[in-house]
Amino acid sequence: MTSRPAARPGITLPGAVRRAILDHARRQAPLECCGLLVGRGRKVGFAVACVNVAQSRTRYRIAPRDHIDLRRALRAFSPPLEIIGVYHSHPRSRPEPSLTDIADAAYPDWAYVIVGRIGTRLALRAYQIRQRRVRALSMRAGSPSRP
Length: 147
Ligand SMILES: [Zn+2]
Prior knowledge:
The protein has 147 residues and is α/β, with parallel strands linked by helices. The chain is built from 3 helices and 7 strands. The chain has a 7-stranded mixed β-sheet with strand order 1-7-6-5-4-2-3. The radius of gyration is 15 Å and the shape is globular. Bound molecules: zinc ion (ZN). Residues 88, 90, 98, 101, 114 line the site of zinc ion.
């Protein structure tokens, strides 16, 4: 049997999108922020800030209205743009899915991006959550102007 190195699944998250997510997290602190990631395939084009109807420091719930409106707006694009993930913040804890995040993850193909604290800094991490199993996703900036 030959063993091939397993391709680590990943997403492309441009620097401008990362900065938008970090800015949203800072604005919303100490509450969790949340939003949807729009793009094609595994490539995020932009992030859409949404209302966190949970208004909580420890959990998030995308306003259903925001989700519905965004889906409707994306139908106008050709080729189609899709919601390919969701992001939220952990103002006081690490960027790792909480038990609630795992239990509530309803989209097996989405990327779940979390911005959270590592020491004094905010950091972003991405995951796939399928049937309550969490897998880390690599993140690429996907920009030639990467410093
Ligand atoms: Zn969380």
